[in-house]
Design a protein that fits this description.
Elements lengths: L4 E5 L6 H15 L2 E8 L8 H21 L7 E7 L2 H11 L4 E5 L6 H6 L2 H8 L4 E4 L20 E6 L4 H14 L4 E9 L4 H4 L7 H18 L9 E7 L2 H11 L4 E5 L5 H6 L3 H8 L4 E4 L2 H14 L1
Parallel strand pairs: 1-2, 1-4, 2-3, 4-5, 6-7, 6-9, 7-8, 9-10
Antiparallel strand pairs: 5-10
Helix pairs in contact: 3-5, 9-11
């Protein structure tokens, strides 16, 4: 996995400095080009378009300069300003660069309007061709050790939820590649849904608790079988039963995870929110950054475009 270009998009909210620090850490880790971006909304009908567009650009550039000037001089930061709908501008710029990772903040908003419309970050995640690293208003903003800190001691734990679908296995493979040379400990997690008599279908010789234990033991065996041979000493397998989002968040808190790596399958945002897509639920509640891996066909399409451009 090569992360050559990182796009860090900020909105000048209270978490923008934390978002940039996270992007700088990733840029240093992967030795990547870092592009700091801000999007300006289109002028309102009541405004003088040319004057407002000029003032918006000046203010945006000043804001990006202030943010970047507070960071260490060793990291070269490019600045980009766009105008339009935020999520569309971010996706367009990411494709143009092209970006291999987008770093953004999420504000954890809730309510019916948010469920139906979605935040900018969630809209970017739903359509992005590359992974998105999102961070909330609380928690840590360092996910990996410094490159020169040595590889002898494990300092960080990375949680990887797995539902055994093809895309979750692809996500797990990505997590192993991201952390393969780093002093981190991987934690694979599978969440089993609670069952009732109606779910057992032919397993009538089992009691419900016995059937649940059987499902959890089977899941544990499958997780253990996914651990790469060269990582046996630093991968742990967990199986829990309960609501998916709640168990992922609880497990992340219990192991003090520094990062959650999980996949997302693209689809209509309204459908995703109404039916509770786990990725977005975790994104809104996670105590640590979330690295979201897009569906396999998106990653393949992005790679094909880059190869065609060369």
């Amino acid at each position: 996995m090569e992360i050559k270009t990182i796009l860090c998009s900020v909105d000048f909210s209270s978490i923008s400095a934390r978002v940039l620090r996270l992007a700088i850490e990733a840029s240093r880790l992967f030795n990547s080009r870092l592009v700091l971006h801000h999007n300006v909304d289109p002028p309102l009908p009541s405004e003088i378009p040319s004057l407002q567009m000029f003032m918006d650009k000046v203010l945006a550039d000043q804001g990006l300069q202030r943010l970047s000037s507070k960071q260490e001089a060793a990291i070269k930061i490019e600045r980009k300003i766009t105008r339009g709908k935020a999520h569309t501008s971010i996706l367009t710029l990411a494709q143009k660069l092209p970006a291999d990772l987008i770093v953004m903040g999420t504000h954890g908003r809730s309510g019916l309007k948010h469920m139906l419309v979605g935040s900018t970050t969630e809209r970017v995640i739903a359509k992005s061709n590359c992974p998105v690293l999102a961070i909330g208003e609380a928690g840590e903003n360092r996910i990996f050790p410094e490159p020169d800190e040595g590889l002898s001691e494990i300092r960080h734990r990375v949680l990887v939820p797995v539902d055994f679908s093809p895309h979750s296995l692809y996500t797990l493979e990505n997590a192993c590649r991201i952390t393969g040379t780093l002093p981190v400990e991987l934690h694979f997690l599978h969440v089993v849904q609670p069952v009732s008599w109606d779910d057992m279908r032919g397993g009538g010789h089992f009691t419900v608790p016995e059937f649940q234990r059987s499902l959890m033991l089977d899941a544990k065996d499958r997780l253990l079988g996914l651990i790469p041979e060269n990582m046996q000493d630093r991968v742990r397998a967990h199986v829990r039963m309960g609501p998916v989002v709640g168990e992922i968040i609880d497990c992340a808190a219990s192991i003090q995870a520094s990062l959650i790596v999980m996949g997302v399958t693209p689809g209509g945002l309204i459908e995703d929110f109404l039916f509770g897509a786990a990725s977005y639920g975790v994104l809104r509640s996670s105590p640590c950054p979330v690295w979201v891996v897009p569906e396999i066909r998106h990653g393949a399409a992005s790679a094909a475009k880059r190869e065609a451009a060369q």
